[in-house]
Specification:
The complex is a heterodimer of chains A (400) and B (297). Chain A is an alpha/beta fold and 400 residues long. Helix content of chain A is 41%, strand content 20%. In chain A, the strands form four sheets. Chain A has an eight-stranded mixed β-sheet, with helices on both faces. In chain A, strands 2-1-3-4-5-11 form a six-stranded parallel β-sheet, sandwiched between helices. In chain A, strand 6 (165-170), helix 6 (175-191) and strand 7 (196-198) form a beta-alpha-beta unit. In chain A, helix 5 crosses helix 6 and helix 7 (209-223) runs parallel beside helix 8. The chains are: A alpha/beta (400), B mainly alpha (297).
Amino acid sequence: MNKKGISTWWIISMFAAVAIIGMVGSVQATDLAHSPRHIVLAVEHFSPVSGASWCGSFHAACQWLDKKYPWLDYLYQENVGPDSTIAVAKDFIENKHANIVISNAEFMALPIEAIYKKYPNVYFMGNIASDTETRGQNWIRYFGRQYQSQFLAGIVAGAITETNAIGLVVSFPAVQNVRKVNAFTLGVQAVNPKAKIYLGSYVGAWYDPPTEKEVSEKLISNFKVDVLSNPGSDSSAPVTVAKEKGIWFIGKDADLTKLGWADEDTVATSYIWNWQVIIDRVLSDYMKGETHPRNLYFIGMEEPLYTPDGSIPVVDIANNGRYGVDSISPKARKKMSKDEIELIRSRREEMLNGQWDPFEYYELKDGKTGKVMSPAGEMPSDVELLSKMDYYIPGVVPPK
Amino acid sequence: MDWIFVVAAIQASMIFLFAAIGELIDQRSGILNVGLEGLMLVGALGSFVVADATGNPWLGFIAGIAAGGIFGLLHGFLSITLKADQVVSGMGIWIFALGLTTYIGNPLSGPLNDAGKMNGIAGGLTPMFFIGLLIVFAVWFILFKTRLGLEIRSIGEDPYVAEASGLNVEKIRYLCVIAGGALGGLSGAYLILVYNPIWSPNPTMGRGWIALAIVFFSMGKPKILILGAFLLGFLWHFALSSTEIIPWLPALSYHFYRMIPFAATIIILMIISSKRISRKLGAARPAALGKPYIHNE
């Protein structure tokens, strides 16, 4: 055999070897993807998990699942920005054999659109802030109806304010924040129509402790707010300011007293996430080997996760490990009437049963133009709520 | 504008003040440390770690001062012993500190242990406010009323003449960079133990660069420096409440008004750097600032 013949055989052998390795690799990947024995759940957190309520609550949910399922491994990477979403996801998949990759903020989740087709055996999950269109066969977009628990927390805020001025720290005038502020305001107005909701200044970031602190101080200084919350920011700065100035605080995303950020003399209650409710459903689809899993979640309190210890709604109000009306701090409870407490109990019950929703029950009016955007008794569509609500209702005083 | 605003603005000013007075000592001895932001970062992290663990803010301040002093010493080693370009070594200090504090601090993100925080004693002002004013007075006194101050200033003007007069240039410069670093660390500690007792990545948010501009603006004089620090501290907080304080101002995003101190920094540096102005102010700027001192020249 001449030299040319040898090199031709070499090339053919190499191609064959690559093909065999590729086939073996894909078989392994398929086996791994649908093996009930071992599933790797990998999460890209956009901020640190400690000191940030959003990623902190997500981290706690994943740890809860990790503990619940012996076959589940939970991996995570903190401070992932949109520039590193793809690199971190690829590292999770190719080096750490991740089966499900979650990016827990929309701004850093959307780059996944470019790669999800390359990994058909991996489920990708991306949080929704306002975009509901970007999704695919194994590219799942999710959110929960946090506004339901924010409505309940708003009732507490409306009942305990003495200055009738409530301050909310908000990152941007984004749909997600507008929806939260409006739901909270509906709760406040359900018991206290005189109260005003002040936003002060937009922080300009989801996680910016120094500016969140400065905006919180401004709300107290300029608008005399005596109840503060941060539906649109994530750090512990607002609750730290509330504690220091001796005013009430309504916690966001996580049970703040359980986290140790403040005690019940400051935190009247917190509106919390139980992200495991959504992730568990996705895990279940994965275990079944669904090639077309449900790829859009926008679930409310009526679709809980059932466990031997009871059902867990995706959102709720909580304080020091207590839920519902029991979550209201004893000191705050003394400032509330029986009717106000009963209202929280009954509305929560109705929402758990899927019989009531604040955005359906109340008329939604644009506070700036006075135009009715959604009449009472009519439920706005999911797309309306997730992508189009760009008006504050009357009672909200946005930044100038 | 009420007392809460005034206190918040004073607190913001103190962050600039501590950092700037430290840099002023550096610069008076002829050393430029553009890594001031880095000194603040290590001071902030050091103070957070110790105050959080011990629940004692004073120990936190000591740790912050020590961390800043060590990084000041590092800058001194690079710029005095190794004769490195001071701008490059300063930038190196900043980038190194940013990476280091982000890496070490990440798992600590969150609020400081309540006991570790320094609380106000007079209308929300903490003891550090009064200590800060004392430090500025002490620095002014040492620089302008003592022999040591004269030696520092003469080394900053012409280290060769100073050495010919029998001064140990390197020793005095090392003393100044350590003191300057310690005050930079104290600024970071103040930020984290008084101003915003929460650890988050890059908590200084560019304040070190503003402090650097205040030093140039002060022309090396502590009395002007204190005015500059309070002016920029008030501007920093004014940004958030601009239209509430001056109703006829355009209702722009606070980000626009927050930009003013940074824009002022650029303008001040441009003015100070122009040949005409620098000639006029020449007497106030150390002539040997930023130049490595080499014995056998």
